[in-house]
Amino acid sequence: MVLSNLHGPYGEDGRLQGLLDYLRVPYCGSGxxxxxxxxxKILCKRIMLTLGVPTPGWRVWSGGPVNWGSRAVMVKPPxxxxxxxxxxxxxxxxxxxxxxxxxxxxGDEVLVEDYVVGTPVTVGMLELPGGSVMVxxxxxxxxxxxxxxDADTKLDVDSKGAVTVRAAELETVPLNWISRDVxxxxxxxxxxxxxxxxxxxxxxxxxxxxEVNSTPGMSRDNNFVVGAAMVGLxxxxxxxxxxxxxLARPPYDAPLPTPVFTSTxxxxxxxxxx
Length: 274
Fold this sequence. Notes:
Blueprint: H1 15-23, H2 32-39, H3 41-51, E1 58-61, E2 73-76, E3 87-89, H4 95-103, E4 110-114, E5 119-127, E6 133-135, E7 139-143, H5 151-155, E8 163-167, H6 172-189, E9 194-201, E10 207-213, H7 223-230, H8 235-247, H9 264-273
């Protein structure tokens, strides 16, 4: 049994899950498909549109001339967690540098998302014994020493504790939209075990989904753990629920495949080496 809380490439993007599936090792959380969709910000945006879930306007940059839309944008790498590599760009002159940084050494496509002013809201979800999914109360995160909830603030690299987490005070309409959208994404993406979905809520009461996290952080002060505490669940309760969900899944219906090597393998490899 594996309870992984690894983030970023290999840990939460479906590759670890695929390896565990191949090895026939039970594990907590979403499978290959849901993990891959949630980890790929661009693909996840496309799934949101298919499911009819509101999300800020966006486009994909894959190199070449920069098309500035005359408004502030969030520049995001397609992969990775904890807002690493993300930039808030307000001036067109700063956009090329932000795009290059987000693309990285591999020159990946970059998500350019319209910057929506509002209150950041996050909602945790936990699958309970029996298959029902508990939706935690929405929380709002306020970064007091940063313009947005960036990587340094999220990871608290300077141990300043510059983030305040509290219950989100939402009107009935956006609260209902959020409740609808989290369940739509849970079912539509095929999430399992636990998840956390991030929103931005405007002053007008519009709620937009920003990202889906198939492997929410489980540190002591993490948003997911705080949300669980608001409904009376301890950190241990969450872990036990995750373990129960993984153990209750149907067992693998096929044995682990065993590679069969023929006598021609060595001959072929020898020929290649020459």
